[in-house]
Amino acid sequence: MQAVIFDFDIYLFKIWPMDFSGWEKLSLVDYDDNLTMTLFMAGCNMRCPFCHNSDLVLRPHLAPKIPWEEIVSFLKKRQGVLDAVCISGGEPTLMPDLEDKIKEIKSLGYKIKLDTNGSRPDLIAKFHEEKLVDHFAMDIKNSKERYGETIGVPNVDLTPYEKSVEYLIHSGAGYEFRTTSIMEFHDEESFRKIGEWIKGAKKYFIQRYIDSENCISHGLHPIPKEVALAYKKILEESIEQVLLRGYE
Ligand code: SF4
What we know:
This protein has helices spanning 2-15, 54-58, 68-77, 98-107, 121-129, 147-151, 159-171, 188-197, 225-235, and strands spanning 20-27, 36-41, 84-88, 111-116, 135-139, 175-181, 203-208, 241-245. The chain is of the alpha/beta class. It has a single domain, classed as TIM Barrel (Alpha-Beta Barrel). The protein has an 8-stranded mixed sheet, with helices on one face. α5 (121-129) packs parallel to α7 and α8 (188-197) runs parallel beside α9 (225-235). The chain is globular, with a radius of gyration of 17 Å. The protein starts with a helix and ends with a strand. It binds iron/sulfur cluster. Iron/sulfur cluster binds next to loops.
């Protein structure tokens, strides 16, 4: 049933104009040391139970809409003050006019970071090759064996995610991979297999899960720090730099 929702979502996103539904006007943590504005798009083709943007993912049609002109006007006023714009979601690569919007932001002199679940490898390649995106942050939800279960879409076709991983590792693009680690979904085997899958990657984060009212499901648990550190060691056998995020 959920696989049907997945296909239907893709269809809807092709015919509906999509808007940004949230923004954080100053973030110090979204893109290295850059002073960043983060935009959130409503809508996603996944249903990760641990997602903390359930309003944007499950009810995108009810989400508030920020007029694009308002965003551009704000960015014009902050030229020389902010360094970058992080485009997040939901899944922003489903936005039909994302490329035009990125071009407009770029023309104002901002660096762009794109958060993605990796479902549009064609766009990742295009944005890198046309120098539209400076840094990609792609989620690796789990080992391939447990991907469908972890994203709430059983029997998902993994081909796009495999292509995105392959492209990012070999293209020279700026990127990081990241996994939100959860007791109910991830164990030692998960991280061993993730390490095998993305072998040769430059940078990878194990992110701590934080429960909140806006999560799609409740009752999930973060992996304790000492366990995350053990998984980090496993991943360091195949990935250049492995870091913990949210465990400070
Ligand atoms: S965590 Fe990301 S990919 Fe998963 S449902 Fe939420 S927005 Fe979509």
